[in-house]
Amino acid sequence: MLANLEGLVWMAGLDDHSVQTLLHRLASDGIAAPLSEGADPRYNVRQALNDLNQQLRYALGEYDSPHSSAPVPR
Asked: What is the 3-state secondary structure (H, E, C) of the chain?
């Protein structure tokens, strides 16, 4: 589900307001980095969702150890 949401954000399947709202929530929960000036909010949301997805997969036992955050494609 997180990967599908990440894909929607990447392919502009979510409007800008929804992306901003999601980013604000992810940042307030400490999952996403706050948006710096000039940064792409869609990229920050995709990165946060990808990182969260990897953490969830580790918690579910798909990985033996936690994965380091890797940049998502631009």
From this structure: CHHHHHHHHHCCCCCHHHHHHHHHHHHHCCCCCCCCCCCCHHHHHHHHHHHHHHHHHHHCCCCCCCCCCCCCCC
Distance CA 49, CA 42 (A): 11
pLDDT band at 23 (very low <50, low <70, confident <90, very high): very high
pTM for this predicted structure: 0.81
Q: Are 49 and 8 in contact (CB under 8 A)?
A: no
Which residue's structure tokens are 């869609």? 42
Question: How much is the average pLDDT of 35-41?
Answer: 88
* Nearest of 28, 29, 58, 60 to residue 69 by alpha carbon: 58
